[in-house]
Each structure stands twice: as C-alpha cells, then as structure tokens.
Specification:
This protein is mostly helical. The protein has helices at 2-33, 38-47, 53-73, 83-94, 96-107, 122-142, 151-158. The termini are far apart.
Length: 159
C-alpha cells in the first residue's frame, strides 16, 4: 500500500517537473522570437543617432539576451552591463502595458528596473555584474549553435 502512494507521488512530481520545464522552454522561445515595437526602436535611434540599423539590431538582440539571462537567474538580481542596451530597456519599460505583458509571458513575473545608484550597497551592483557574466557564459555553453555567445558580454561592455 505504501509503495502505491510512493509511486503515485513520484509520478505526480515527475509530471510537475516536466510541466515546469516545458513552460520554461516556452518562455525562452518567446523571448528569442519577440519583436520589439517599432516605436521603441525609433526612440532609441533618436537617442543614439550614431547607431546604424545593424547596430540597432545588435542592441535589441542584446536586450533579448539580457532577458534570457534574467530568466536563467530566476529571482536573483542581474546587472545590465551596457548603457545602450539599458537605454533600449528604458524605452521598452515606458510602453507599460506591452512591457508588463512581455514580462508575464517571458519571465512569469514583472522585471523591475533598479538603477545601480539606487541599490542599498555598491556591492550589490558588482555582484549583479558578476552574476550576469556567469549566466551569459553558462547560456553560451548551453546554446553554442544559436546567435548568442559569450562575446556578446564583451560587446555590451564596449557600448
């Protein structure tokens, strides 16, 4: 009788595990395939007129990659290492309803933006940068065949 309950419990845990895993995969696919509103791109181009169309594409791919890093971090804070990608994120946040819907579908929660200056201690921002680096490299090893690679982090730092 006890074995019966153990088997049912194990089966239920397995179902829950695979359901969560499938949801996480759907979220990552949503992030990768997300098309940012043209108005966000236009505002960023106005703020950074020196950027070419190809560079703007790279910025928005970097923003997608940042959201993938946030997804992987779960609820741990990760810092944004690029000013220009942060500017794109700011423009995205200003479209509040669109951003809220994106966060719900991509992350399962609202992703708040906390400037480094507003953090309780400077150590938190540094820890967030280190976590961003580690997660970017971990994602790189997991998805070597995609466009994302660890060099992206170095590109972020150059922006």
């Amino acid at each position: 009788m006890h074995l019966y309950f153990l088997l049912i419990g194990a089966a239920m845990l397995s179902l829950i595990y695979f359901a969560i895993r499938a949801n996480k995969a759907r979220q990552l696919k949503y992030i990768e395939q997300y098309h940012f509103h043209k108005g966000i791109r236009h505002k960023l181009a106005q703020k950074h007129p020196q950027l070419t169309e190809q560079q703007l594409d790279m910025v928005f791919q970097g923003l997608r990659d940042y959201f993938r890093i946030c997804h992987r971090a779960r609820n741990r804070m990760v810092s944004m290492p690029s000013q220009v990608i942060d500017d794109a994120w700011h423009e995205f946040i200003l479209s509040t309803r669109i951003y809220e819907k994106f966060c719900a579908k991509a992350l399962g929660r609202f992703l708040h933006h906390t400037p480094a200056e507003a953090m309780p201690t400077p150590t938190l921002a540094k820890d967030g940068i280190k976590r961003s680096w580690r997660l970017a490299c971990a994602l790189d090893r997991l998805i070597l065949k995609s466009r994302f690679d660890c060099r992206l982090f170095l590109q972020w730092m150059a922006c």
